[in-house]
Specification:
The structure is a homodimer of 336-residue chains.
Chain A lengths: L1 E5 L3 H12 L1 H8 L4 E7 L2 E4 L6 H11 L14 H7 L4 E4 L11 H10 L3 E4 L2 H17 L4 E2 L10 H8 L5 E7 L2 H11 L4 H10 L8 H4 L2 H15 L9 E2 L7 H9 L2 E9 L3 E9 L10 E8 L3 E8 L3 H21 L1
Parallel strand pairs in A: 1-2, 1-4, 4-5, 5-6, 8-10
Antiparallel strand pairs in A: 2-3, 7-9, 7-11, 9-10, 11-12
Helix pairs in contact in A: 1-3, 1-13, 4-5, 5-6, 6-11, 8-9
């Protein structure tokens, strides 16, 4: 399985390490031999038709800040050129999300699918802005588009709802889908002001470079778009989500909730409407988790309400979700 | 798909209603046309090669207390005779669990598999006493043995761990697997004595006819056996589980835990050892759920700890798990 990797940040590096450490296990257990034939970051690229040395790749990135240093004799080509010119089976898109035009991820994904590559995206931007049309494009080009890592990080929320609950009808769901705001709200409940809680989250490296993605509910809304499309079969994009962030919450709001044995959480919900908004939930509701945890409750027709809780992010967790998608693609390919 | 149903208690009746209500949906969505060709309870049986009328079946059971009244002109035959003589594809075993010899369920399952029927069991007894050999028998006879409803009721815990986490290594797990004891412990935390909490649970119909199954941890241990075999690949049976029930717990134990911001829960755990025992867990641990809820936390190599919470029992929930198993069997059959 020949892979092009877009971006080489924390998640992609974790993936490289994971593939490296599990080479023999993946081959013996699943018959899968993944090879990364091309990778690029913002400063350059590295490619090798017979597969890049993953250990070396991680080391040069660490030492020189770019994969460019892998082999300086190589001509620098753009990501799109790499997709056009390298012989590959799968594209893994890990560049940063943005919700304006979702570039460069959007172009990577579209170009790859048109060229017949299967795509795994952990970049939420393209999916949030164009889920329905990207799925259509995948179908049209007879390729698979997977994105397990976009919601819940290493916690297989999408897979659970789609596969483990097969035969069931999910009626509605609601969840805490953004760990950063949950961390801030948890600290506000412990007595910190919004600003102090935000500073603390920033110091810990939990807040996105563009803090609006967390604080204004954009990240949670993007995940809601993906869940609504994938699980509920809706055809919606970012503009269909009503978004209210947590910037206006005061310590008084938190205290008022506490008096009612409740906590204020930023909840993404899919019921009659698609909404991201801070709401009060009961402290003994399984959904009411603290810290950076994510949680989602699915209400189904016959099996009642089921809640999944897990860490929502992290390089190695998200890398493990990419590996699941790779195994999934490998399984689907081997059927045909 | 031709089905023989062993037992016609709450779960089996819920299944009959579920199949009845979803006939057209199951056919259009999954191409599945399940027909129950034979059913028996402790007082008699009913059978029809072209499929029993499920509405009538539920009604006669309600009115006369046995499926025998469905057609009194029919000769009464034993469950085993029915398995031998009826033409069927799947056996669904729903008779009561016992952990002495697991009969009559054990004989139903073995006979059916030897005859080439796929088996769905929501009866934990046979699996708890003989999981490894039953799986071997299934493999030998090239039939499928499914048991989603034995752990977590309608919450697809087994499926989640096996399928949604594919590609991951689960290192250990621990869970609250018995809703009745959890209900009793929750009420003890609210100030009730053990005896009062037990009486209350009995009044609500939560306690098994043989209360030892709940109170001495046998039910939780049976589920632990199933999880350990299915998910961790261990070859264990009931005798390999160390079991300590909740009978000896006092209000003081509960209060001592509360002082440490902990709750006493009956935890089934798979780590170095397989143990069912009351232990103190932190109140902010996602696993710490109250009432009749079940919860299980899987610790995996790369994706951290993930917790699933849901109702653990109930007729309709368990029936929905049987339906999932049926769909699974149907899917596997159609591959060949």
């Amino acid at each position: 399985m020949r892979i092009i990797l877009c971006g080489f940040g924390v998640v992609a590096q974790s993936l490289a390490k994971l593939l490296e450490s599990r080479t023999s296990d993946l081959y013996s257990k699943y018959g899968m031999k993944p090879r990364i034939v091309g990778v690029f970051d913002s400063k350059g690229c590295a490619y090798d038709n017979s597969g890049l040395d993953l250990k070396k790749l991680v080391n040069v990135k660490k030492e020189f800040g770019s994969v460019r240093a892998y082999d300086k004799s190589q001509k620098i080509i753009s990501g799109l050129d790499m997709i056009h010119n390298l012989d590959a089976d799968v594209l893994i898109e890990t560049t940063a999300s943005n919700y304006k035009d979702a570039e460069p991820g959007m172009s990577h994904i579209i170009t790859a699918m048109k060229k017949g590559l299967h795509v795994i995206s952990v970049n939420k931007g393209p999916l949030a802005l164009a889920f329905p049309s990207l799925m259509e494009l995948a179908t049209y080009n007879q390729v698979l588009l997977r994105f397990s890592g976009t919601v819940g990080g290493g916690t297989p929320i999408l897979d659970y709802a789609k596969n483990s609950l097969r035969g069931e009808r999910i009626i509605s769901f609601q969840g805490i889908l953004n760990g950063t705001t949950n961390y801030i709200l948890t600290n506000m409940a412990k007595g910190l002001s919004f600003n102090d809680a935000l500073s603390d989250a920033k110091n810990k490296g939990y807040v996105e470079a563009d803090e609006s993605l967390d604080l204004d509910g954009l990240d949670a809304a993007a995940k809601l778009v993906i869940l609504a499309n994938w699980i509920m079969g809706l055809k919606v994009t970012m503009k269909d989500i009503e978004k209210i962030g947590i910037r206006k919450l005061t310590s008084k709001d938190i205290d008022d909730a506490a008096k009612k044995s409740c906590s204020v959480k930023l909840i993404a919900s899919c019921n009659d409407k698609l909404v991201v908004s801070p709401i009060e939930i009961k402290n003994d509701d399984p959904l009411c988790v603290d810290g950076t945890l994510n949680a989602i409750s699915f209400t189904s027709e016959h099996s009642g309400t089921q809640t999944i809780i897990g860490r929502g992010a992290g390089g190695i967790e998200t890398a493990s979700s990419i590996l699941r998608d790779l195994l999934d693609i490998r399984k689907e390919i081997s059927k045909t």
